[in-house]
Amino acid sequence: MARIVRVEAVMVDLKPKTKRVDAIQSFVSQETPIVRIFDADGAIGTGYSYTIGTGGPAVMSLITRTLAPALIGREADEIERIWRDLLFLTHATSVGAITSIALAAIDTALWDLRARKVGLPLHRLAGGARDKVPLYTTEGGWLHLETTALVEDAIKAKEAGFGGAKLKVGRPIHEDVARISAVREAVGPGFEIFTDANQAFAVDEAIRRARHYEPLDIGWFEEPLPADDVEGHVRLSQATTLPIAVGESLYSHLHFRDYLARGACSVVQVDVGRIGGITPWLKVAHLAECFNVAVCPHFLMEIHVALCAAVPNARWVEFIPQLDTITSVGMTIRDGYAVPSAEPGLGISWDFAAIERQAVEGSRAAIA
C-alpha cells in the first residue's frame, strides 16, 4: 500500500423522489457526506454515509476539522488500526450518531481504496460468501399511503420477483391490521410482509400490537421500541412469536452485543452508514452469525448488496434507491435478487460531475 496524501470531502443533499412518512417522521432531505482518499501511488478510494434530514454540517465539520487531518501520512491499508485510532481520537463524542456517521464515510473510502488497489470487488475482499441476495421493497409501504396503494405496490414487487415488502405501522391497531391483511390477501402466503414501527411504541403497546400481527404471518416486527430500551426488547421478544428486528438506530458494535446476548432481537439490521463503516459492520455480522441470527441491513442498498454477499448469514437487501442522481450505473437486479458488482471497489459508479453540481454550498474541503 502507500501513505495517504490527500483527503477531499463534499456533501450533497439528496431529496427523496417519493414521499416517505413513517410513525414518527417525514423524510424531506438526505444529507450525504462523500469522502475521497488519495494515496501516494495516485490511487483513490471513495466512501460515503448519510443523515436523514439534519446533522450533515456537523458530520462534515468533524470529518474536515478532526478526522481527515489525522489521516495524512497514515498507511492506507491499516484500516483496522486507523478505525480504532479515529474512534479514540473522538472518544469525547463516542458513541454517538454524528461521530459514527463521520467514521463511516472515511472507513468506506479506505475499503474502496484497498479493494481497488488489489483489484477485487468488495464482496469478495470482505468474504465472498455468495453472488446474489434476495430483495424486499420498502418504497411502496409508507404510512401515509392508502391501502389500495400498498396492495398495488406489493403485487408489482411480487411480479418483479421480489421476495417481500415492508409496511410501516403506527396507525390505530385496527387500521394497521386491515392494511396488513389486505396486502396478505393480495400476495398470498409465499410472499414476506415485514412491519416497521420506527421506535414508536412503549412496551405494553408493542406487546399488544404483536399479538394482533401474529395471525398475519409477519416476517418481522422492526424497531417496535426506542433503540436504547434493551430490557423492553427482551420483554417483547419473550411475549411474542414474531421475529423482532433492530439495528438501524444503533451506533456501536457493542450495542449489538448487548441485544444478542440478552435475546432481545432475532434479526440484525446493522447499517454501514450508522455503525461507523465496513470495519464494524463486519464485526456485527459475524457476531450475529455466532448467535445464528440473520443480518438484514437497513437502507444503503448500493453498498449493502456487496456486504450481504460477503457474509453467510445475510438474508435480505432492502430496496430503497438512494444514489440514482449521483451515480452512472445503478445496482444490478436479476429476478428479484440484488447482484453485487464485479468491478474492483465498493461497486458504486460515482458520477463526480453530478456530485459537483449538487454539492451543498460551502461543503467542499480538501486536506493535504
From TrEMBL:
Keywords: Magnesium, Metal-binding. GO terms for molecular function: hydro-lyase activity; magnesium ion binding. The keyword Magnesium applies. It comes from Segnochrobactrum spirostomi. SUPFAM superfamilies: Enolase C-terminal domain-like (SSF51604), Enolase N-terminal domain-like (SSF54826). The lineage of its organism: Bacteria, Pseudomonadati, Pseudomonadota, Alphaproteobacteria, Hyphomicrobiales. Pfam families: MR_MLE_C (PF13378), MR_MLE_N (PF02746). This is Mandelate racemase/muconate lactonizing enzyme family protein. Residues 147-243 form the Mandelate racemase/muconate lactonizing enzyme C-terminal domain. Its cofactor is Mg(2+). PANTHER family: ENOLASE SUPERFAMILY, MANDELATE RACEMASE, MITOCHONDRIAL ENOLASE SUPERFAMILY MEMBER 1. One of its GO terms (biological process) is carbohydrate catabolic process. Coiled coil: none annotated.
